[in-house]
Amino acid sequence: MDRGEGKLVGKDSNWERALHLYEEIIASGNESLQIKATIKLGHFSNHVPENVLINAIPILVDRIAHCQGGDGDGDLLLAAIVNSGVVPSVLSFLHNSSHFLRLLGLYSDVSRRYLLEILSALALLREVRRVIINSGGLPFLVESAKKGSIVSRARAAHAIMLIGATRRFRRILVELGVVPLLAELLQEGDTSTKIIAGNALGIVASHIDYLRPVAEAGAIPLYAELLQGTEPIGKEIAEDVFCILAVAEVNAVSIAEHLVKILQGDNDEAKVAAAKVLRDLSGYKHSVVYCSKNSGAIPILVDILRNGNGDVREKVSGAIAQLSYDEVDRGALADAGVIPILVSLLRDELEELKDNAAEALINFSEDPLLRDRISEALDIASFQSVQSRLVRIRATDQHTVTLLRQMRVEQFTGDPELRVTCSFLQVREYSFHCLL
Q1: Sign of torsion, CA 217 218 224 229?
Q2: How far is it, in rounded angstroms, from Cα 392 to Cα 157?
Q3: In angstroms, rounded to a whole number, what is the distance separating the alpha carbons of residues 301 and 296?
Q4: Which of 58, 186, 291, 312 sits CB 3.0–4.6 Å from 197 for a disulfide?
Q5: 231 Ramachandran zone, left/alpha/beta (phi>0; psi -120 to 50)
Q6: Under DSSP, is residue 198 helix (H, G, I), strand (E, B) or coil?
Q7: What's the rounded Cα separation, in Å, for the pair 103 and 53?
Q8: Is the four-CA dihedral 387, 388, 389, 394 of positive or negative sign?
Q9: Which residues pair with 2 in a beta bridge?
Q10: 431, 399, 432, 426: which is closest to 244 by C-alpha?
């Protein structure tokens, strides 16, 4: 490579020296020379000896990481690296079994681990993920999530999440064993890794065939821990995944048990999240299985409504309002003494508490067995005002929202090919760079 022009020398030249010159150019900070040298490297990449090309990978990966972590100044160099042809040449060693076996003979286990860590870094690029998919490199990406540093494994898990958002590749990833692997990262990783693995596993779980395998991998108690953590995004992910896993009735029972334990604890933020999950799950057909008085959830919710404070009471009142639509749950709520508490909340200063209390009491008023027990509320002016407004809402928006939620669950359970919409789970591509 001529240092002045940023060019790689011909195929008969000293490749080791060419690599050394390329490294110097990359370290020089001269973006114009860096781009020229990278393009030339791509031009000759099919002729470069394997050991030299492999030694060039750390230089490229370090530059990719620098470009991604910067303020956009390295965008042109990053594009040159991706489009130069070097990345497919590197990945060809990984997906071509004969090349890869030769590498295994040349390099120790440590070198293989290093190659896998490099693959996980490259996989953060959309173009590279496309190459991995098209070249049959998914097994190597899954392997990179098993081995190496925790940061590298988290990178691979993030790439798996992005690839797994597509149904066809999700199935392949499951067959390659990502479910127990991601569950392991969710259990053993640091906080950032747990969040990434939890989101990835949630994406993988969003198919009717994978609901039970994900639960059988021990995911439910791990998401319960995430729900009780300090990271807001971790709570958000756990809430979303619980809503997906609970589509399977056996999972719903287990989830309810963990939610009840959280509601009995001292973590107010976790209680808020648990109440939100119970509220969302109340629209499922089998909600009676885990929300009835036999589950223990309703007496605890009523006790929190009576003695709790702040945001906890607001979210619990929302859960109780939703539960009051079911006849069995409505009876359990009445038996737990919720009616006088709801009546007292009609005089509360917080509008959300008033609205939720009124919504629940309206449902009680329409129950022939319970309507007499809310006679006191009928004479309260605030109740009458809220009742009139909520009746209109229930006739339009609330009915539509409830119907759509139920339709979403019924479609998911009835059509194995249906992908869960982003209203439950999001492909949080931003999360990796925010957390690591």
Answers
A1: negative
A2: 47
A3: 9
A4: 186
A5: beta
A6: helix
A7: 12
A8: positive
A9: 7
A10: 426
91 in Cβ contact with 132 (< 8 Å): yes
Per-residue pLDDT of the chain (436 residues; tens, 9 = 90+): 444 343 444 444 578 888 888 888 888 878 888 888 888 887 877 777 767 776 776 677 667 666 655 555 566 777 777 676 766 666 665 555 445 455 534 555 666 777 788 788 878 888 888 888 887 889 889 999 998 889 999 999 999 999 998 888 999 999 999 999 999 999 999 999 999 999 999 998 888 889 999 999 999 999 999 999 999 999 999 999 999 999 888 898 899 899 999 999 999 999 999 999 988 887 776 654 444 545 688 899 999 999 887 789 999 999 999 889 888 889 989 999 999 999 989 888 788 888 889 889 988 988 888 888 888 877 777 677 767 776 676 566 544 444 444 444 444 444 333 333 333 445 554 343 333 3
- The Cα 339–Cα 405 span in angstroms is 27
> Residue 350 — left, alpha, or beta (φ > 0 → left; ψ -120 to 50 → alpha)?
beta
Decide: 192 and 232 in contact? Cβ < 8 Å: no
Query: 319: part of which helix (H) or strand (E)?
Result: helix 310-323
Q: Which two tokens stand for residue 199?
A: 């989101």
- Distance CA(257)–CA(221), nearest Å, equals 10
Residue 219: other Cβ atoms inside 10 A: 27
Q: How far is 330 from 338, CA to CA, in rounded Å?
A: 10
User: Token digits for 278?
Assistant: 């119970």
Q: In a 10 Å sphere around its CB, with 0-12 CB exposed, 13-18 middle and 19+ buried, how is residue 121 labelled?
A: buried
Q: The whole model's pTM is what?
A: 0.72
Token pair of 385 as six digits: 């005002």
Tokens of 11: 């195929």
- Name residue, tokens 């097994």: 139
> Exposed e or buried b for every residue in 259-281, given b needs 16+ CB within 10 A?
bbbbbeeebeebbbbbbbbbbbb
d(CA 16, CA 27): 17
Sign of CA dihedral 332, 335, 336, 340: positive
Query: Can you tell me the distance from the alpha carbon of 32 to that of 155, in angstroms, rounded to the nearest whole number?
Result: 30
CA distance 276 to 358: 18
